[in-house]
Structure prediction request, 229 residues.
Amino acid sequence: MYSERASRLPGAVVWTNTPSGSEGGRVLPDGCMDLLWNEGRLLVAGPDTRAHLTGGPPSTWAGVRLGPGTAPALLGVPAHELRDRRVELADLWPVTGVRRLTALVDAAGDPARGLEDLALRRAAETPPPDPVLHRVVAALGAGRPVAATADELGLSARQLHRRSLTAFGYGPKTLARILRLRRALALARRGTPFAETATRTGYADQAHLSREVRELTGLPLGDLLAVRS
Prediction:
């Protein structure tokens, strides 16, 4: 069973997932990165460019999903180094420190709460994310063209691309595709007809929407909605 709630860390979401069967899951790209706990291990999920398929025996997971652009400052690692990867936190931070943090999360009783406390402490110790990043996400998330976004922020195309790689794990065009997909899926899940969904979210037509959904998620739009309903 999957559940989530807003985090005390601004822009983050705390979630837990305890699968009830042996079937795998499908994690869709969303521009975010996650701090994870799984059966006594601490891990990091980097930004995905395609759906990530989970597998293995059923086990309990907890996570803090950090909003686009916020995780690199907390982790001290550029996002592009973790793109499409799941890594042990001990691969990024000193092993002895990670052992201590793991013990603290385990001792919290509720791993999700322990992870959230860890993220809050880390955020208090690190500088806040560059405010320009929030403006990039807001502009692209609203459907603004990449070139226009760069101009409005006073950045060259190269500067925006470089900063996006560090903050989001990929360039602004990929981020824009992923954010547009999220907008489209939100509309489609509310019952908006696919053709209208395509028009309202800036796709050329329904066929364009269908191609993007299949490429980014691995499933046709109708099948994807059925799986996640």
Remarks:
- The mean pLDDT is 94.
- The first strand starts at residue 2 and ends at 6.
- The longest helix spans residues 172-189.
